[in-house]
Amino acid sequence: MRSSSARTPGKARTRAPAAPRPAGSAWVALGLGLLAVLLYANTFHHEYVLDDDIVARRNALVQQGVAGLPGIFSHGFLYGFNGLDYFYRPLPLASLAIEVELFGNDPRVHHVVNVALFAACVALLYLLLLALLEPPAARLPDRAHAPPRRVALVTALLFAAHPIHTEVVANIKSRDELLGLLFTLLALRLLVAHADTRRPLLLAASLLAYALGVLSKETGLAVLGLVPLTLWFFRTSDLRRIAAVTAAFAIVAGGCLLLRHAVAGDALPEDPAARAINNALAAAGTPGVRLASSVAVLGRYLRLLVLPHPLSYDYSYNQVPLVSPGHWRFLVAVAAHAGLLAVAARGLARKQVVAYAVLFYATTLVLVSNLVVPLGTVMGERLLFTPSVGFCLAAAWLLVALAGRGSRAPWLVPALGVILVLYAARTITRNRDWKDAQHLYTSGVRTAPNSARAWNHYASWRLGRGAALPDGAPERAADLRAAVSGYARALEILPNYSEASFNQGVAYVALGDTAAARACYELTLRADSTQEGALDNLAGILYREGKVAEARRLWLKLLAANPRHAGACGNLGATYLRDGAELSRGGDPRAASAAFRAAAGWFQKAHDLSPDAPEYVRDLVTTYSRLGDEAATRRWMERLREP
């Protein structure tokens, strides 16, 4: 028996050169990219929707363009939106800031770039699979059943056409998902090139791509699990070599996590997964229900990958109900995933492509499954973007392998064509739902009728449209009443949904029903005693009803929750100004003077917090005039005249 380590005497040991890529591969990759562009071309004129604003128009750092890049790289993901440092995804924001610098606030530019990035992902996926499946991977035991070039092509076609990707490509905010996958694929492609040539620069480039993927979105960390799998299945059985390369990626992962900790810390100031509206699992009464519900969601993911209908931008409470360990959804999901694990286990030693596809899917899905780390959502189509690569690879290999059996399966080639046409048609039609707020939120209540958040979004869109219309317009009243009804539906699903009850109060104010608005604000405060909008608006109602002391108590409570609320300071000044006027009319000049001075103090605080607001300067002029302080009155009058 020949030893695997035997050498020919007198000859140096050499490594076989990597097989050259066929010249047509680049053209096929380009064609696949163009197909992706065609499928998403109808998003080019879409507007900002959903949470696009938090990373674009309402993100102060992005709005600074190139000048905002230092702040983007030294702060958390949403710092430019809400001033809070959590998450660390600087690359998506940096790309958007550069686009703002070059083209201004034009959503069309952001959408075109998103589509271009998706096209690059499709092309790179094809090239990666060619590198994995063709020589030296020709030794794969199942290669004869599924020619590599066909597998790579069908995988890329399925990935390009799959409707599950519409949320990522059509949503500007999902730039993080696009960049994350692009750098994941690039890291793996460079890793394979390094394995074939042992060139250190290729490994360094792969590590850099990995770091860029993690800096795009934290889920890019999953590459750390893909590295040993990719090497084992397609390049080497040398466990020491695999461990050494994986260790290098682990060092990069550790560095990225340390950077994230230094900039954004380890946890959110308020865990979004703790609120049922964000993640229905927060309402699970027992660990068993939480686990069963999380696994049932994995079953829903598999169904959407096979049959992507209906699709929804939102799966909030209670669109995905909690289930017990005895529920059929949990049992079916367990059975399906047990089958997948069996396939992976059986094919691991044999290095079967379908086993790699299953493990790719599992490795990239586990971080967003709510099984390891609780997320800010129970379910989302965007979370399947990277894992769907594994699904498409498995589906492509099975289809090509069956079709390769000739006359026994003549229907498979046209069947594949039908699948691609159906997927492509669904993608194009689904893109239309992301055109603007009206299309998206209307689709949401249709496809997720049990989601409290979907109804809240829809009602808020109707409220905004109606409030912008002139008083007396019949469309205004219709929109406002529809908003009230939408909020009522949201509260029917989740009675303690404070955002919906507050918004309903705003709608009632627009309709002129102050009593109903007051009831809504009181309901809001029972659910969330520090909700700033409800405290402010309810205090305003009480103030107008002459209940000054009650109003003052609420504004003081608001300031206790948010000491930098300029409006509350100004309103407290107004209460003391009103007291001073009444005391002055009542013949108590000393008490009136004390009230006026208290008013001046609050107006001064309001001005300090919001120096560009002229109303506080006018209030100070009025107050000092009532005090008879001519010098202070003149000083603030001059400030009022300043441009």
Could you describe the 3D structure shown?
This protein is mainly alpha-helical and 643 residues long. It has a domain at 24-57 and 105-430. The chain contains 29 helices and no strands. It has helices at residues 24-40, 52-55, 60-63, 69-73, 79-82, 90-103, 107-133, 148-161, 166-170, 175-197, 200-214, 223-234, 239-264, 287-306, 328-350, 353-365, 388-403, 412-432, 437-447, 452-467, 474-493, 498-511, 514-527, 532-544, 548-561, 566-585, 589-609, 614-627, 630-641. The termini are far apart.
Task: Give a short summary of the structure.
This protein has about 650 residues and is mainly α. The chain has helices at about 25-40, 50-55, 60-65, 70-75, 80, 90-105, 105-135, 150-160, 165-170, 175-195, 200-215, 225-235, 240-265, 285-305, 330-350, 355-365, 390-405, 410-430, 435-445, 450-465, 475-495, 500-510, 515-525, 530-545, 550-560, 565-585, 590-610, 615-625, 630-640.
Q: Give the overall silhouette.
A: elongated
Q: Give the mean pLDDT.
A: 92
Let me know the number of strands: 0
The largest sheet is: none
Q: How many helices does DSSP assign?
A: 29
Uncertain regions spanning at least 5 consecutive residues:
1-20
Name the helix and strand elements from N-terminus to C-terminus, one letter apiece: HHHHHHHHHHHHHHHHHHHHHHHHHHHHH
> What's the alpha carbon Rg, rounded to whole Å?
30 Å
Share in β-strands:
under 5%
Q: State the share of residues found in helices, binned by percent.
A: 55-70%
Keywords:
single chain, 643 residues, mainly alpha, 29 helices, elongated, disordered N terminus
